[in-house]
């Protein structure tokens, strides 16, 4: 049978993560990888979770081993509502404002399914989160791609594009603006309070939704917490995505959508046809964990660990890159990534061949482009390699940049 012939126009728009392809080289013994976007497994509270897992299987099997509701575990909802109030001062939320998804990735897919088709537009930044690009592309959406600046999206650019669509009578086709508000993946940037407010104003002016994706908010290493866009714009205007992947364990696959009740009902319907329900067992595991332990307290050693590694990487960049003109990097105040940009003309995708030879791995910026095009930037994650490998890796990266730059007469 000819499989290609059978596949629908939606099926044809699916693609697999290039990051996985790239990172298979990093398995080598003496390789150093800044590529992985995953948390350090040593930070997972495995003893605590193991103990609770045994208890909930033996004593709560009626719930944990059964089908559950599409919305998810009410006990976990209660815990999340408390957590959001402590972290962000969010109040007034009740159970009907929340639905759990299989990680935030499912939320992105369901939001794509609910809002997008080949006639719609959504707003993404440049660079953008790969998981969001892939999820929204499947539904054949058109994109307004807005450059990301040091304090968030370039709002003048966004307004210009929206005005053009409004002038053409097409503004109704624009559905939402997707934003990673804290410690952006890949760019490390945090949207400033001013821009959050201005973004809500733009969304109100053109009657658009904002999808705020906030997986890293609790992983702040310096500076003060900023109000979520959700708090500024309210649930009528903003839907907030949260996840336990970066603060507890990605293997639990627990994401949560927080929003207006009517939207949540829509997400529940979409989830029902996708998978009926999430596993009750991981929901109850997380709920009991949060009842017993203070997540924000438990996170302190993790934050210490990542804060130190981030410092090691920033100091190494200072030592090995500050003498190369035109090189810049974003000093992310939290999260897992540093975004390093080389001078104009560099193509970090092409340069990857040089990196392979030196056994140093990164994720080329091209991966985070909505429309495939070269990029002089790369994403570096500091969270997995030990300190001395971070320094050695940055040193190798310098050699790679100098070798490529010299050969291409860029420096
Ligand atoms: C890691 C990450 C997620 C989380 O994905 P899960 O499906 O919850 O594991 C979502 N958005 C961004 C921007 C991320 O970096």
Q: What count of helical segments does DSSP give?
A: 16
Overall geometric form: globular
Indicate the structural class.
Answer: alpha/beta
Share of helix, binned: 40-55%
Average per-residue pLDDT, rounded, comes to: 96
Q: What's the short version?
A:
This protein is an alpha/beta fold and 411 residues long. The protein contains 16 helices and 14 strands.
Can you offer a commentary on this structure?
This protein has 16 helices and 14 strands. It has an eight-stranded mixed sheet with strand order 2-9-8-7-6-3-4-5, sandwiched between helices. It has a four-stranded antiparallel sheet with strand order 10-11-14-13. A hairpin with a 7-residue loop joins strand 10 and strand 11. It has helices at 3-6, 18-23, 46-59, 61-64, 74-88, 103-115, 130-137, 155-167, 193-205, 229-233, 261-275, 280-292, 295-298, 300-321, 352-358, 387-407; strands at residues 32-33, 98-102, 121-126, 142-149, 152-153, 174-180, 209-213, 238-243, 254-258, 328-329, 337-341, 360-361, 363-364, 377-381. The chain is α/β, with parallel strands linked by helices and 411 residues long. Helix 3 crosses helix 12 and helix 6 (103-115) runs parallel beside helix 7. Helix content is 43%, strand content 15%. The chain is globular, with a radius of gyration of 22 Å. Pyridoxal-5'-phosphate (PLP) binds at residues 103-105, 129, 131, 180, 185, 213, 215, 243, 245-246, 250, 255. The site of pyridoxal-5'-phosphate has 14 residues, from helix 6.
